[in-house]
Amino acid sequence: MSKVKAGGSSKNIHNNAGQRLGVKRFGGQAVNEGEVLVRQTGATKLAGEGTYMSRNYTIHAAKSGTVGFKKVKKQHFTGKAVPRTVVVVE
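^ thats the sequence. predicted structure below, dont judge the formating
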């Protein structure tokens, strides 16, 4: 005999909405000042010239222009170079 009643299962509890992350304006597109370019969790892409990063790592356009993406090698504290993408507005 069991000492405890059957607890049941909790299979339908993960029903929260997605965060809608990702690139919002692609390379070559014209943008205005303040538009959201990339929504991300952590700094997976870096803010370059003509852009700025807000507190939740969202990259915005600091000026009007066209969006561009550049590949750079960013050096870690250990000396290892890691490829990163930099978002720029020209």
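The chain has one domain: 22-89.
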